[in-house]
Amino acid sequence: MFRFPTSLSLNLAILSSVVLASRLPSTTTVFSYLLFSVQWFALFPLFRRYLLQYNPIAFHTLTVILFLAGIGCVAWIGHGNWLAGAVWGGLVGGGVGIGCPLGLIWLQKYKKYGLSLPILDGNSW
Fold first, then answer.
1. Opening angle at CA 43, ends 9 and 25, nearest 5
2. How would you label 27-65 residue by residue, b for 16+ Cβ within 10 Å and e otherwise?
3. What residue spans of 22-125 are helical by DSSP H?
């Protein structure tokens, strides 16, 4: 079985953060967003691993807090109805995680695989 390197998820998380940050209006918001992304995707997993190794009770307490915060966010999305929020989140997650890739695979049959050459000053390469 092929195993992906552990740095792949971190690289993809930072890549998506940079892509999203490119749409922000000012350098201050870009810096703040990228700083938060590095803390969330790089430093927080290290902190959780450290907690698990040296204080398992704190690790499990943090896990329960994060789980309850996730349920609270789902209930907030569903306007107080956690089941509606969970269904909505599942539909959006399934659409993005399954529907979009399948749609892109289906659209590949319409793609023309010609070689694209840049045109500079009226001359092609």
1. 80
2. eeebeebbeebeeebeeeeeeeeebeeeeeeebeebeee
3. 27-38, 44-54, 56-77, 82-94, 100-107
pLDDT in tens, 67-86: 888 777 777 777 777 777 77
pTM: 0.54
Q: H or E segment at 8?
A: helix 7-21
User: Is 103 within 8 Å of 93 (Cβ atoms)?
Assistant: no
| Distance from C-alpha of 67 to C-alpha of 60, rounded to nearest angstrom | 10
Among the residue ranges 24-33, 74-83, 91-100, the one predicted with the least confidence is 74-83
- Could you give the CA distance from residue 97 to residue 91 in angstroms, rounded to a whole number? 10
3-state secondary structure of 120: strand
Pairing label, strands 123-124, 119-120: antiparallel
- 91 CB-side CA count, 13 A: 7
**DSSP state letter for 114:** P
Is the CB of residue 107 less than 8 Å from the CB of residue 99? Answer: no
As a whole number, mean pLDDT of residues 97-115 equals: 81
